[in-house]
Amino acid sequence: MKKIGFLSFGHWTPSPYSQTRTAGDALTQGIDLAVAAEELGADGAYFRVHHFARQYASPFPLLAAIGARTSRIEIGTGVIDMRYENPLYMAEDSGAADLIAGERLQLGISRGSPEQVIEGWRYFGYEPGEGATDADMARAHTETYLKIIEGSQFAEPNPRPMFPNPPGKLRVEPYSATLRDRIWWGSSSLATARWAAGLGMHLQSSTLKNDENGKPFHVQQREQIEAYREAWKEAGHEREPRVSVSRSIFALVNDEDRRYFGLDRQASDQIGNIDEQTRAIFGRSYAAEPDVLIDELAGDEAIQAADTLLLTVPNQLGVDYNAHVLESILTHVAPGLGWR
């Protein structure tokens, strides 16, 4: 069995060719797609977070709304950029959303990705400490956040409070007792995968990774997963680790599918530089008839190694079409690979 969900970036544009023309469209359609995915038997609804972009930016109102409309599906992010986050305020928001959802959040967090603006986190009031990088700042914010959602009691109470306090120091409220066990780290390297394992976070590995040895993308990603699981074992955590990978996968089962994706396939890995220091490898996409997809996906070593597969969806094609994309994979592909 493999958990299968979707990952939406929530793109919107006023173009007449888009079915998602406003931020309101993107948000309400994200809710509707999560509801449809649950009805289809999918396991997860995940959302990418980008600031200063016509995409999803503030995830917790969206996650809470989905939590109120659904009852079973996992609700997550992939990923929240921790350079932009106040760990205490995020603990309040995520705790509230998790409780509304009945403790179903699966929060992917990370350093983030290339941005729309230069050092956008500075506009949010954050700056790395002396001698530190923005990546160091993201990891510091993360470690603080993890400590807070563990229920750390650290705040000195007012001796004359407006309302009576419980004994001792106070913690951030609302508090979800299980949320700490459902935090994931979005990793693009072996080193950060091992770091995440040490802290007891699950692993999200996407369609982009640092090119660390020149091997095919799915092989490098499988090696990263193995390194992560070994580090988890060495850390002695009692929980079972989870690992997700994301892919663009389209089963061509009708003329509409073939018109959208039949002739436009990124059938091989791509290499590029995401900044001056980082050479990255981008994974291929898959688009074919179901029987061909089954053979191709069986050879993707990272998909086989992961327990969770997130399908990146073209959200601007609308809720109905994206529900069809999910249903096609769940019906025509997943059973042939033993995932269902």
UniProtKB/TrEMBL annotation:
<keyword id="KW-0560">Oxidoreductase</keyword>
<protein>
    <submittedName>
        <fullName>Alkanesulfonate monooxygenase SsuD/methylene tetrahydromethanopterin reductase-like flavin-dependent oxidoreductase (Luciferase family)</fullName>
    </submittedName>
</protein>
<keyword id="KW-0503">Monooxygenase</keyword>
<dbReference type="InterPro" id="IPR011251">
    <property type="entry name" value="Luciferase-like_dom"/>
</dbReference>
<dbReference type="InterPro" id="IPR050766">
    <property type="entry name" value="Bact_Lucif_Oxidored"/>
</dbReference>
<dbReference type="InterPro" id="IPR036661">
    <property type="entry name" value="Luciferase-like_sf"/>
</dbReference>
<dbReference type="GO" id="GO:0005829">
    <property type="term" value="C:cytosol"/>
</dbReference>
<feature type="domain" description="Luciferase-like">
    <location>
        <begin position="9"/>
        <end position="257"/>
    </location>
</feature>
<dbReference type="GO" id="GO:0016705">
    <property type="term" value="F:oxidoreductase activity, acting on paired donors, with incorporation or reduction of molecular oxygen"/>
</dbReference>
<dbReference type="GO" id="GO:0004497">
    <property type="term" value="F:monooxygenase activity"/>
</dbReference>
<dbReference type="Pfam" id="PF00296">
    <property type="entry name" value="Bac_luciferase"/>
</dbReference>
